[in-house]
Amino acid sequence: MTQRTLAIIKPDAVSKGAAGAILSKIEQAGFKVLAAKLIQMSFDDAAGFYAVHRPRPFFKSLCTFMTQGPCIPMVLEADNGIQKWRDLMGATDPAKAAAGTIRKEFASSVEANAVHGSDAPETAAFEIAYFFSALEIH
Ligand code: ATP
Ligand code: MG
After folding, report:
1. In a domain, 125, yes or no
2. Is residue 114 part of a domain?
3. CA-CA distances (angstroms) from residue 4 to 74, 75, 117?
4. Domain holding 32: CATH number?
5. In a 3-state reduction of DSSP, which class is residue 1?
6. 46, 62, 107, 109: least surrounded by Cβ within 10 Å?
7. pTM over 0.85
């Protein structure tokens, strides 16, 4: 089933100049990029996006990290796109990420882990609408 997911190239990856290499891996894996933009989030923008993580001890640090520089949210589409993108990202903790995954190659820590991906159809719908209007998705 063709499925859309929300990906973000996080500020750590943008600032180290890895955005192009990550986009190349996305295209080589067969995703269609339906939308993309470079933005810088405020703390409140990040807090709204990560609202489900508000009770977690790392919430404030995570929101600060996501605002430290520009990031690139994107809408990706592929067959089984949500799981396919999570498989290409690799485990949250780069120390546990499999060889060939983006986090294995580009993440520096469990927090500064290079990329984000939606984890279910409902979160993908919320997250895509958080960053993009219907007119921005092609
Ligand atoms: P994402 O939602 O960004 O795709 P994920 O689904 O693999 O990542 P989540 O459990 O949803 O992981 O955590 C969201 C983000 O919070 C992680 O990507 C990471 O940046 C940060 N994070 C998760 N666990 C920790 C932790 N123990 N310490 C610091 N930051 C963390
Ligand atoms: Mg998550």
Report:
1. yes
2. yes
3. 10, 7, 11
4. 3.30.70.141
5. coil
6. 109
7. yes
